[in-house]
Amino acid sequence: MIKVSILGATGYTGQELARMLCQHPQVEIVGLGTQNYVEQSFAHVYPNFRGVLELPCKGIYDPELITKADVIFLALPHGFSAPLVEKIIEQGKRVIDLGADFRLKSPEIYAEWYKTVGPTKEQLAKAVYGLPEINREKIKTATVIANPGCYPTTIILGLAPLLKQKIIDKNFIIIDSKSGVSGAGRSLNLTSLFCEVNEDFKAYGLPRHRHTPEIEQELGTVAGEEIQVTFTPHLLPMSRGMLSTIYAVLKEPLGFAEIEQLYKEFYKDEPFIRIQPRGEFPHTKWVLGTNYCDIGINVDERTGRITIISVIDNLVKGASGQALQNMNIMYGLDETLGLTRVALYP
Ligand SMILES: NC(=O)C1=CN([C@@H]2O[C@H](COP(=O)(O)OP(=O)(O)OC[C@H]3O[C@@H](n4cnc5c(N)ncnc54)[C@H](OP(=O)(O)O)[C@@H]3O)[C@@H](O)[C@H]2O)C=CC1
Ligand SMILES: CC(=O)N[C@@H](CCC(=O)OP(=O)(O)O)C(=O)O
């Protein structure tokens, strides 16, 4: 059995991870870290876990959370990870960080976009960007995983086949993304209150959302050249789900069949990527509670433009499901263990 602790277990991604780990046949949860619920049973914080996970929570700096575990998941706000990751790897353990601190390769770019000092260049060099569809081989042996952001996951998976083949104009990529409110986390936040979001819809994060450098860094790596994108996130009045609409210009006239073939070939061995048939575009509900990323393709032969619709559950493939997928890969397990559920419907 793999012994696992979650630091930040009482947040939205932490509890989603706990839910999936409880159903994983090779995992034992040995520690749950929190800020506000120290010594309280996890099932007291989340009564849907009653009879399932009653472990008492500990403060996030309780040493037992590290000493008892083989792998530690960090589901904390950004800014906490660097010292914790140091302590974890010193003790020969592995760590999967759901936050943003280890995603960017440059400390200067991190400081510019997050307005705080993050890990050093040496610390960052130890981390692997944990997007399995792109980095599986490196993830297998990694000690530190930087789990991708939710928006970047939809966008990188949506664009990778086109950029790898260099069939779109790298200077014209426009991304319009929408997120459910759980994307903002569980802490008290005026902009997430029911009366603020219900019956409303808005763009936010302009002019510079902090996921932009992560998107550009990883797309640039796939493309082998520098990429800049225009990225606008929006807030949807629903709990979970994320949909990105991505617009690009084809360098030469290609039809749907050729593009579909390209995506099917690129993702042919991927258990969690589902390319939709011609004329079908995924809904957020199709992936609710699952680790799938569903991708729809529209080739507009009239304008020579292509539109990609990429959909995930922000708390699953956008965070905790992807983190578990990474753990499965790191431990040589079947990558889908604990992740095989079908979406809830309706
Ligand atoms: N929500 C999403 O869709 C996604 C989130 N992420 C990233 O994952 C991480 C966790 O996000 P999410 O679960 O949404 O966040 P939440 O705000 O829901 O949870 C944060 C967790 O961290 C704990 N925490 C907060 N502040 C402190 C502190 N000062 N000291 C100790 N513990 C603290 C909280 O404890 P307590 O409950 O006691 O307050 C809680 O367990 C973030 O870095 C986020 O950016 C990544 C992808 C998607
Ligand atoms: C709706 C909403 O507020 N979403 C969050 C998503 C960010 C997130 O969770 O990503 P990190 O892991 O990079 O922090 C936001 O836009 O800031």
TrEMBL record:
<comment type="similarity">
    <text>Belongs to the NAGSA dehydrogenase family. Type 1 subfamily.</text>
</comment>
<keyword id="KW-0963">Cytoplasm</keyword>
<feature type="active site">
    <location>
        <position position="150"/>
    </location>
</feature>
<dbReference type="InterPro" id="IPR058924">
    <property type="entry name" value="AGPR_dimerisation_dom"/>
</dbReference>
<dbReference type="GO" id="GO:0003942">
    <property type="term" value="F:N-acetyl-gamma-glutamyl-phosphate reductase activity"/>
</dbReference>
<dbReference type="Pfam" id="PF01118">
    <property type="entry name" value="Semialdhyde_dh"/>
</dbReference>
<keyword id="KW-0521">NADP</keyword>
<feature type="domain" description="Semialdehyde dehydrogenase NAD-binding">
    <location>
        <begin position="3"/>
        <end position="142"/>
    </location>
</feature>
<dbReference type="Pfam" id="PF22698">
    <property type="entry name" value="Semialdhyde_dhC_1"/>
</dbReference>
<comment type="function">
    <text>Catalyzes the NADPH-dependent reduction of N-acetyl-5-glutamyl phosphate to yield N-acetyl-L-glutamate 5-semialdehyde.</text>
</comment>
<dbReference type="InterPro" id="IPR000534">
    <property type="entry name" value="Semialdehyde_DH_NAD-bd"/>
</dbReference>
<keyword id="KW-0560">Oxidoreductase</keyword>
<dbReference type="InterPro" id="IPR036291">
    <property type="entry name" value="NAD(P)-bd_dom_sf"/>
</dbReference>
<dbReference type="InterPro" id="IPR050085">
    <property type="entry name" value="AGPR"/>
</dbReference>
<dbReference type="InterPro" id="IPR023013">
    <property type="entry name" value="AGPR_AS"/>
</dbReference>
<dbReference type="InterPro" id="IPR000706">
    <property type="entry name" value="AGPR_type-1"/>
</dbReference>
<dbReference type="GO" id="GO:0051287">
    <property type="term" value="F:NAD binding"/>
</dbReference>
<keyword id="KW-0055">Arginine biosynthesis</keyword>
<keyword id="KW-0028">Amino-acid biosynthesis</keyword>
<protein>
    <recommendedName>
        <fullName>N-acetyl-gamma-glutamyl-phosphate reductase</fullName>
        <ecNumber>1.2.1.38</ecNumber>
    </recommendedName>
</protein>
<comment type="pathway">
    <text>Amino-acid biosynthesis; L-arginine biosynthesis; N(2)-acetyl-L-ornithine from L-glutamate: step 3/4.</text>
</comment>
<dbReference type="GO" id="GO:0070401">
    <property type="term" value="F:NADP+ binding"/>
</dbReference>
<dbReference type="GO" id="GO:0006526">
    <property type="term" value="P:L-arginine biosynthetic process"/>
</dbReference>
<dbReference type="GO" id="GO:0005737">
    <property type="term" value="C:cytoplasm"/>
</dbReference>
